[in-house]
Automatic annotation (TrEMBL):
Residues 79-110, 122-142 are annotated as: Disordered. It holds the Pfam family S1. This is S1 RNA binding domain protein. Residues 92-102 have a biased composition (Low complexity). NCBIfam families: PRK05807.1. One of its GO terms (molecular function) is mRNA binding. SUPFAM superfamilies: Nucleic acid-binding proteins. Residues 122-133 have a biased composition (Basic and acidic residues). GO terms for biological process: translation.
Length: 142
């Protein structure tokens, strides 16, 4: 099988470096960059892989020079099906009146409350600074 982008194969880790792991796939060596090892931040690749580990990889690219870019994390992502998922949009929808009766607030109400509180805090801070005589930086006071 020829290696082409998008193909998912099984390979063997043959060498580990600080920046990634070299994986043998169908007799050819490709690189899994450290950013393509896991969905989370990988500080030390040796926490995730060892030499001779069998791994499932996705071929990201094969350049003209023969360099093969691989990904472990993209190989484990389930492939999207061609059929879209069905969503019941009528479920859990509440009117604004129902939300207010249940004590919930919609986004606009929460945003206006936040802005009001922020402005009040800012004014308090300003008054406090002025009371101390530190109205901010003064020109020529260096």
């Amino acid at each position: 099988m020829t290696l082409k982008a998008g193909t998912i194969l099984e390979g063997t880790v043959i060498n580990i470096t600080n920046f990634g792991a070299f994986v043998d796939v169908e007799g050819k060596t490709g690189l899994v960059h450290i950013s393509e090892v896991a969905d989370t931040f990988v500080k030390d690749i040796k926490d995730y892989l060892k030499e001779q580990d069998k791994v499932k990889v996705k071929v990201l690219a094969v350049d003209d020079g023969g360099k093969i870019s691989l990904s472990i994390k993209q190989a484990s992502i389930p492939q999207k099906s061609s059929k879209p998922i069905d969503i019941d949009w009528t479920k859990n929808t509440k009117t604004k009146q129902q939300q207010q009766q249940q004590g919930g607030a919609d986004f606009e109400d929460r945003l206006s409350k936040f802005l009001k509180d922020s402005e009040e805090r800012f004014q308090d801070l300003k008054r406090h600074q002025e009371a101390k005589g530190h109205g901010g930086y003064r020109k020529g006071s260096y």
